[in-house]
Every structure is written in structure tokens, then in C-alpha cells.
Specification:
This protein has 348 residues and is an alpha/beta fold. Helices cover 40% and strands 16% of the residues. It contains twelve helices and eleven strands. It has helices at residues 17-25, 45-55, 70-80, 99-110, 168-172, 187-197, 219-222, 229-242, 247-267, 274-290, 293-302, 305-319, and strands at residues 2-10, 32-38, 59-63, 83-88, 94-95, 114-116, 119-123, 126-130, 164-167, 201-203, 209-213. The strands form two sheets. The chain has a seven-stranded mixed β-sheet, sandwiched between helices. Strands 5-11-7-8 form a four-stranded mixed β-sheet. Strand 1 (2-10), helix 1 and strand 2 form a beta-alpha-beta unit. Helix 8 (229-242) packs antiparallel against helix 9 (247-267), helix 9 (247-267) packs antiparallel against helix 10 (274-290) and helix 9 (247-267) crosses helix 11 (293-302). The protein is globular, with a radius of gyration of 20 Å. The relative contact order is 0.14.
Length: 348
């Protein structure tokens, strides 16, 4: 068995793919494989990946016949992975030299299910280190301890799949695949499931991944209807939290985070085209109606005045009609693929 499989989806990133591929080259080892998944790109990306398949040690070029989005592309890579450990990289980001080997050494020494790493956020020429919101470092813990408290950023609010490394046993248990059908926020149900169902994890620092923000082709910049999939993503989070053995502890955190992201999107609704903005309002109103209402009451009472007022206005629209069933009583929405999570880092 290979030691490490790195899943790298690409879609129309010909400007940035050379940086990602070069960074894989300076991380290559004989026991590493790089699963380069072309999600039906229509620019020069396929040619770059074909060349990498010939020249990059360990590269495996996988092609989609139709565009499926980030989650589906990651799943394609996971299905082909042969490594004892799994890592992710997005096609418009890049790695520091030796980052993969350092992270692998950390997870092998700790003997845990997964590790989480810090990263460097890159916006234009600005660089800032983003820390895993959990401590202390290099101490193995129960992943459930990374979910709470409700009112502070925790590890489930740091959803980036590429900020870490994962033992293959998680893949074999079905915990590493993403939900098909989601076009954004695909990391949110994923990170919650990982923290609820894995047995051990540790933050290890190691900020060797460079995350490029402000990319013009990212859904975070485009603002089209695909961004509304955050509703389906968080419906899934709520449904699964409601079914958990500790639902009374987890639901307040899930509801608060969901509310914070609704407020974030509705609060910047002017960036959406009018039909999408109307749909955002309607879907957000319905989502508030599906939440456990007593938990929602406590959540709104604890939030800052501006966001609470915005959410209460939406909620009044929900109570004017018949509210849909709670996620606790309905199956999770079908899901699938996307670009980087549009709502990561939203203040809870």
C-alpha cells in the first residue's frame, strides 16, 4: 500500500494550476500518489493535467465526463485512493515544500484518526495565518470535544478538508466521502460527521497550505444560485445532529451556526441577482421554520442585536404561513459538489 494519497480537484483553474502542480512536485515521494481530478474543465486546465500525468512523480489523471462540482470530484479521487493516509488540496491553492511529509510524520507519531493543520490565507499580496480553533496542539482528543461550546468558534467551524490528514480507516468506514448534490458548503456536513463519528484527532499547527481567496471563478465571488446550497448542507447538519445521541448538546451549536450563515448571506443580499435574492429570502425563511423552535428562540436571544433582528424579520414571514417539518423529522437532503465553502469563517 502507498503511504499517502492526495486528492486534488481542478475546474477551470489554468491560471493557478501550475502553482498547485509545482507544489506537489516539491512534496513528492516514491510512496505518495497525487490524484488529479479534472471536473470537466473547459479552459487550458486539461492540457496542464495531461502534462503533469507524464512528468509529475506519482500523478494519476482522472477525468469527469461532465462537471459535477468539488464534492463529486473529491469523491472520485477518494474512490481511486490507494494510500494508508488521505489528504486534499484544491487546484487553485498550493503547498509549502515538505508540508505533506511533515504532516504525515505528525499523524503517524500521534496514531490518531485525523489531524487538523493551520493554513495561510492569501488575498492578493496579503498573507495571514489561520489557526485551528482548538487547543492544545499535538494532544490526541475525542473529536466530539471539537464541536462545543456553542458561542465560540470551534473545530467544526473550521471546515476545510485540505487542512489536515486522515487515516484510511475513516475512508473504509465511509466518513471521508462528501454528500453528492451540494454546490457549496460541502465541507460542513462532512466536518460535523467527522467530529461526531471518528474516535481520535489532534490539531498539529503546521501552516503549510496556502489558501487562495478572491479567485474570480470561485462561487464565493460569483454569487449565483449554486451558493444557496448552503441551505441543503445545513439542513443535513441539523438532521444528523438531531439524530445524535447527544442531540440536546449539539443542536444549539448547529442552529446557531446555521443562523449566523443565513444572516451573513441575507445581510449581503445585494451581491445576488434579484431572482436569486428572492429565492435566498424564501429558502432562508423556510429554513428558520424547520429549525427546532425552542432552540431557535434561545439562539436569537443570545445573538447580537443586528443579526437577531434580521433573523426575526425572516422568521415572522415563516410563521405567517405553515412551517415545513423540522429536520429532525425529515430525511437529509440529497447532496453533491462545489467549490470552496462560501461561508467558512462566518462569525457565530
Amino acid at each position: 500500500m502507498l503511504k499517502l494519497s492526495v486528492v486534488v480537484p481542478f475546474f477551470n483553474v489554468q491560471t493557478y494550476a501550475p502553482d498547485a502542480l509545482k507544489s506537489l512536485e516539491v512534496n513528492a515521494r516514491d510512496d505518495f500518489e497525487f490524484l488529479l481530478v479534472d471536473d470537466r474543465s473547459t479552459d487550458g486546465t486539461p492540457a496542464l493535467l495531461e502534462r503533469a500525468a507524464r512528468e509529475l512523480p506519482g500523478a494519476v489523471h482522472l477525468r469527469h465526463e461532465r462537471n459535477g462540482g468539488l464534492a463529486t470530484a473529491r469523491n472520485t479521487g477518494l474512490d481511486a485512493a490507494r494510500g494508508e493516509y488521505i489528504a486534499f488540496l484544491d487546484g487553485d491553492d498550493w503547498l509549502a515544500p515538505g508540508h505533506l511529509a511533515r504532516t504525515l510524520a505528525a499523524i503517524e507519531a500521534l496514531k490518531c484518526d485525523f489531524v487538523r493543520t493551520d493554513h495561510v490565507q492569501c488575498t492578493g499580496r496579503t498573507r495571514s495565518v489561520q489557526r485551528v480553533p482548538y487547543g492544545p496542539e499535538s494532544v490526541v482528543a475525542d473529536p466530539r470535544s471539537g464541536i462545543l461550546p456553542v458561542t465560540r468558534a470551534t473545530s467544526v467551524d473550521y471546515p476545510y478538508a485540505w487542512a489536515g490528514m486522515y487515516h484510511r480507516r475513516l475512508l473504509d468506514r465511509g466518513l471521508l466521502h462528501f454528500t453528492d448534490g451540494l454546490r457549496t458548503a460541502e465541507d460542513r456536513p462532512w466536518i460535523w460527521r467527522l467530529h461526531r463519528e471518528a474516535e481520535s484527532f489532534a490539531p498539529v499547527g503546521l501552516p503549510g497550505i496556502f489558501y487562495r481567496r478572491g479567485v474570480s471563478t470561485s462561487l464565493t465571488q460569483i454569487g449565483d444560485e449554486r451558493q444557496l446550497d448552503f441551505i441543503r448542507a445545513f439542513d443535513q447538519v441539523l438532521t444528523e445532529a438531531a439524530a445524535d445521541r447527544e442531540s440536546d448538546l449539539l443542536l444549539p451549536k448547529a442552529v446557531r451556526t446555521y443562523c449566523a450563515i443565513i444572516a451573513h448571506h441575507v445581510g449581503s443580499i445585494e451581491r445576488f441577482e434579484p431572482p436569486v435574492a428572492r429565492k435566498l429570502r424564501s429558502m432562508s425563511t423556510a429554513a428558520l421554520g424547520r429549525m427546532p423552535q425552542r432552540v431557535l428562540d434561545r439562539t436569537l436571544d443570545s445573538m447580537d442585536a443586528d443579526r437577531a433582528a434580521l433573523l426575526r424579520r425572516l422568521r415572522r414571514r415563516a410563521t405567517a404561513g405553515s412551517a415545513p417539518a423540522s429536520p429532525a423529522a425529515t430525511p437529509a437532503s440529497p447532496a453533491a459538489s462545489a467549490t470552496s465553502d462560501a461561508s467558512a469563517g462566518v462569525k457565530a
